[in-house]
Hints:
16% strand; DUF1059 domain-containing protein; 2 helices; three-stranded antiparallel β-sheet; alpha+beta
Amino acid sequence: MRKVADCRQWPSEVGCTLTISGEEDEVVRAATEHAVSVHSETDTPELREQIRASLTEEAPAHA
């Protein structure tokens, strides 16, 4: 099942609305890179774990 990271779930001064979806590991990697480059976070194991814990399952696409 694909996972989703949605920036709207996190408090943000910039009002970020980015949503990232894909396989869990790639979403964690991309969301971490985004958090560092856009939100000035530091890439730590704790940040990655917070991101991983916040992921939700993507709703199935309808054909």
